[in-house]
Amino acid sequence: MLKIPAFGNTRTVIDRGLQSVRVMKEFEEKSVKFIVRSKENRKFEEVESYLTSQGSERWDDWRVLKDSKVKLYTGIPVQNKRGNVHHREEKVETDFRLVVIRNEKTKKEFWFLTNEFELSSKEIADYYRKRWDIEVFFRFLKQELNLSHLVSLNKNGIEVMVYMTMIASML
Predict the structure, then answer these.
(1) Cα-flanking dihedrals φ and ψ of residue 45, to 5°?
(2) What SS3 class is residue 65?
(3) How many alpha carbons fall within 13 Å on the CB side of residue 80?
(4) H-type helices in the chain, by residue range?
(5) Which residue(s) pair with 38 in the sheet?
(6) Is residue 64's pLDDT more than 60?
(7) Distance between CA 134 and CA 140 in Å, rounded?
(8) SS3 label, residue 55
């Protein structure tokens, strides 16, 4: 999970590690703006499509396949008479936005779920790309500059560690 500041707002950008609809619903209730890369073929009910009849949005090699307001399904744990726990499928009444984009060259699809309805689909994809750039930077710090672990977990401590590592590597 990565928080990216954006013009006074902070957006949380999450890879496919978080798939829980209950957590996304909690984020929405706490007014936490998020963008999650979702697994493909997730079960949802489309409420409204944002794509125009003129065709889908395109940029570079990317094309928007779906841009919709949706309601997602989640599994509710239910205990039967024998004490076994099963999950009953239930639709969550919170509205989310589903954006599906595809790279025309590689035919790779990316599914994004968010509670951001004001952003364009390109902006949503760009936020995810920024997240990946930050991941590559931290991999560089760990592998090339031997930043093996963080001594501090607060923002100021992490900044000091990154600056010290970069200065030491330049010397």
Answers:
(1) -120, 120
(2) strand
(3) 6
(4) 21-29, 121-144, 155-170
(5) 111
(6) yes
(7) 10
(8) strand
